[in-house]
Design a protein that fits this description.
Strand order of the largest sheet: 5-4-3-6
Radius of gyration: 14 Å
Strand content: over 45%
Order of helices and strands: EEEEEE
Number of helices: 0
């Protein structure tokens, strides 16, 4: 990563490369919620979020940003 600095347990980055994808809730499994990437130009595919991480309810869609 370029220009990375740690702040507590999180990091702040400045990146030249970025992918932003929207995922729609597909199904619930034993310990996770599965999300499928929207659109025709799939870059990530399937995303699994642990149930315990979704403390405020299960969203219908999530947006993910990947930087490097």
């Amino acid at each position: 990563m370029r220009n990375m600095r740690m702040i507590g347990r999180e990091s702040m980055t400045t990146s030249e490369h970025r992918i932003e994808c929207v995922f729609t809730h597909a199904k619930e499994t034993k310990g996770t919620h599965q999300y499928k990437e929207d659109g025709d130009d799939i870059k990530i595919g399937t995303l699994y979020l642990k149930k315990h991480a979704l403390t405020d309810g299960v969203p219908d869609a999530v947006k993910v940003t990947v930087e490097w």
